[in-house]
Request: fold
Amino acid sequence: MMEIQKRAELCFPQLLNSSCRKPTLQWSKAVLLNIVLFFISLITAALNLLVIISVSHFRQLHTPSNILLLSLAVSDFLVGLLVMPLEIIRNTACWFLGNLMCSVYVYLTGNITCALIGNIVLISADRYVAICDPLHYPTRITVGRVKISVCLCWFYSTVYSSLYMKDILIEPGRYNSCYGECVFVINDIAGIVELVLTFIVPVSVIIVLYMRVFVVAVSQARAMRSHVTAVTLQRSLNQTNRSELKAARTLGVLVVVFLASYCPYYCYSLDNENVANDPSASFVVMIFYFNSCLNPLIYSLFYPWFRNAVKLIITLQIFKYDISEANIL
Reply:
């Protein structure tokens, strides 16, 4: 009887001592949790797909800032379509997809996360130039240069993830202690490099750039409200128009939400070496991934063009002739 019960607790009963134990979460709770998380994953992919279609289809939206939002939406879309479902499987059930898919999952997670962070850095740099050096913005930040920057961001993410995870790519499942789990372990040196390149440097750059943007935006807003001299007001209006300030505030909300979800995740991983098998870590990880669902909601709240584009997409008007030239701003 004890032998039968022990086998029932294993992911692969036929493997006996080589198999991992099943997660201890009750069946009813596991089903409910999976339904909720998969629904969030589906919503994340759908909302970001709307952003991708909107910016790609309508020519009026082909601006440097929107190209960066498009790249961010692609990374968020991949999080909802691939990373979140695999993370749900890994944390709420036995890993039954094999060692090769485990390596693919780990690589995708690292690659997409790195690209997502890079996109946030590029967005911060774009707003910094737009607010702090508005006269040179049209010449310095062009659509062509932004596209090159986005390509370099994804190329860097791919190369960095390949080097960082070469061990598990060469030998899938090398860190798994039993069949039914998917684990990735890093050594101390690699952990320090990751800490610097994926947390300290990008977060510091984002904070410094947006602190500068915030200071300049506040000074511009005060100048606009000031009635000391007409010259000061006119100069202020010429330097930074209200649309740029509004875009800076909107993207500032996006950056703050990103930092609020990313910092707890990374701080938790620093204090816990075995995050992959820690049940309490799954909540922090899913909060970080949930940020990908919040970004399109931020666009819908602050960007009228996104709401207008979604209406045209949902009503299938995008299939009309020359609709890509429509004025949706």
